[in-house]
């Protein structure tokens, strides 16, 4: 007879997508779980569907929930991202197009555009997780954010499970009976069928392991929480139904922090705030796992040129930390799942390929970064040049300053294959969202609390055309392919390309050898010679 034990934890990609800790909740305490349950009850009573259009959501967010305009748009975009958590290909969503639907609501009264509908469950989860804020909850910042998310969910498990289960069609019809009285929590005696637990897959995953075996996360292939709980309930209760209070108790007993911990800020010397005053020591860590999306690669305080070209690195979670003035170029030409850059100041350009999900920038200063991503979030960053191709508006916390945005500039021949592996594509000029970032400050409008409006002047601006360039690199660059022609003509605005070509022409006409700076240090050259040996 085999004795087994079940393990559950919040999904790493779920806690990453719903990380809204850069949003301030305001001077008064806000119960975001109550806010989410009120939203479900209101929509469920008047509409009864499991979807909501952007125009309906915007009306609720602004007029009923009194949310900030930018926050309402950000929540919708984040919920759409969460809805597609298991999809490789994600929708391109423009904040400008969403605003356009509000201004022209009469032209499209039912909002039947595919991009402008979202499931209410991910939207309610985004609302609830907005309360997981380090400053407001008093969490110790020495703990990684995925641990804080676990604590936040654990302390509010009844309400969290209520949100997930109320978004089931039958339970919504059964329990939502009034628009004026929200369902604060599912009543304890409510019978939940195991098939109604499928909604939990969006937030939790788990595994069933032999009890006596030592756990090694590197050899584990997680499964959806539904299948784990279904087996546990049927074996324990000899039934396909379970009371809600028993379900919450069961999940509480099985729940643990994410054993993979993909969403954490890599740090050294126990420091998470600010850049190190001393030059940090070089370190590189690689955590292998069966599935690429759980692998982690972290690099700290690099001194020479870094190239990450091993096939093992494809599709992993990449952490970059403690870059400094002597850190040379960092090339990651492969596709990745997520990228997290923190505590970096004055390093040479960081050049990245496609990123399937999110790029987080925290405490990054005086740096140039090139990346293709679905979403980019930055907080406490200054004096950055970002060359990006992004399918949702970049999110900037109001504590950032002088963030310059330009089109993606890192071309290499293998980029076409890496985009195919990631199931992504280079966006043309009209789709790339680098021009339209969202600046976030408080959950509610500042005037609601009689405070001054946030001044966004100086936070971001478009990159000057004279500052744009195609990044030189050490990889094969075939400029005769149709892919390069698309990259050159369709993804880079003409004014940027013209300015770069004119600067190249001036360089050719002048004595460029006399004024050319040495791009690679002696350490870089020794590193490249060693790599090619």
From TrEMBL:
It comes from the Eukaryota. This is C-CAP/cofactor C-like domain-containing protein. It comes from Rhabditophanes sp. KR3021. The lineage of its organism: Eukaryota, Metazoa, Ecdysozoa, Nematoda, Chromadorea.
